[in-house]
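Hey,
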Amino acid sequence: WALPFMARWQTARLTGDRVLGIPTSDIQDAEALLNIALWREGASKEWCAWQPGSAHMFWRSYIAQHAPGPYPFYPDPKHFPYGTPAAFYFVRGEKEEGDLSRLMGILEERIESGASWPKAYYHDMKFYSSFRDLKVASPDVPCIM
């Protein structure tokens, strides 16, 4: 079921076609495409933001454990009034080589120093060690990770 579903929506996004009446050419990122596809196909869950941004955001928010801004982070008045939960799994869309090089240097230093890794999950001005911990603190969060 998953492969035909993803193939149908991703192909439409790449070709600019419509799927089930949804124009896909304006959908800009992977999370939005997946969530719109899930909603349109009748799913009751959605994905949280698992790849929130650039190298700059990664070191400013994840490494420093500083809330991504502005607050609330990508809010939706109905489903995410306190912002969209995020997981700092990887960097995407980085166009500045210097920023990526700086991030790689920060990560290498952290590995060499033996420092513990920062908490990777974020929601409502707080970082968490696991998505389970986030869900315990915010049981009404309607997304999965």
